[in-house]
Design a protein that fits this description.
The complex is a heterodimer. By secondary structure, chain A is mainly beta. Chain A contains no helices and eleven strands. Chain B is globular and about 40 Å long. By secondary structure, chain B is mainly β. In chain B, strands 2, 4, 5, 9, 10 and 11 form a six-stranded mixed beta sheet that branches. The N and C termini of chain B lie far apart (41 Å). The chains are: A mainly beta, B mainly beta. Chains A and B meet through strand 5, strand 9 and strand 10 of A and strand 5 and strand 10 of B.
Chain lengths: 116, 110
């Protein structure tokens, strides 16, 4: 099946710093990637939809200046958490939708962000 | 706005017992998907249902899509410890994104 990787898997940073998370589709081209946030024992909350070559579409309540998304190629999307604060600590998961008509999404392994 | 609800939130069973989780959407869905997330892991796609009244089976797992395409269920027969995890249903929202239910976390004791 299709494989999506994320890097880094874990990151600990100081408050005020920026953190970049990469999401790559390894064996397929992803025209659309999605970024989710998951708090402990909770569901996945969609943050934004990332389309290759165009601006990301953010969900209501998600600050686009704080969560910068770039989808520069068909295999890479990045999420940058700018000026991170402790409340940004969470599990960030990306997913990718392939070119086929089937609707399934392939999830990356996630990135655990801890802001001190 | 569109909502996808799942019950129960938690379910504990003895190994060998059956388990069912229910998913309800506030709107009619073109399709519904089910994912499984193991503890510490990421969601993994299980299945997609598209047709009204559709029933699909994967070994001990049976998935149903309601006639009105607003509800779905996942039934596991004779649970095993490997079934432990959180099961999410998800339906499409505007565009190609998915809206996830809150999930049902299954624990199994042997």
């Amino acid at each position: 099946g299709a494989v999506v990787s994320q890097h880094p898997s874990r990151v600990i940073c100081k408050s005020g710093t920026s953190v970049k998370i990469e999401c790559r589709s390894l064996d397929f081209q992803a025209t659309t990637m999605f970024w989710y946030r998951q708090f402990p024992k909770q569901s996945l909350m969609l943050m934004a939809t990332s389309n290759e070559g165009s601006k990301a579409t953010y969900e209501q309540g998600v600050e686009k200046d704080k969560f910068l998304i770039n989808h520069a190629s068909l295999t890479l999307s990045t999420l940058t958490v700018t000026s991170a604060h402790p409340e940004d600590s969470s599990f960030y998961i990306c997913s990718a939708k392939g070119l086929a008509a089937y609707n399934e999404q392939f999830f990356g392994p996630g990135t655990r962000l801890t802001v001190l | 706005g569109q909502q996808v609800m799942q019950i129960p939130q938690y379910q504990h069973v003895q190994e060998g017992e059956d388990f069912t989780t229910y998913c309800n959407s506030s709107t009619t869905l073109s399709n519904i998907q089910w994912y499984k997330q193991r503890p510490g892991g990421h969601p993994v796609f299980l299945i997609q249902l598209v047709k009204s009244g559709e029933v699909k089976k994967q070994k001990r797992l049976t998935f149903q899509f309601g006639e009105a395409k607003k509800n779905s269920s996942l039934h596991i027969t004779a649970t095993q410890t490997t079934d432990v995890g959180t099961y999410f249903c998800a339906g499409p929202q505007a565009g190609t994104a998915l809206i996830f239910g809150k999930g049902t976390t299954l624990s199994v004791s042997s």
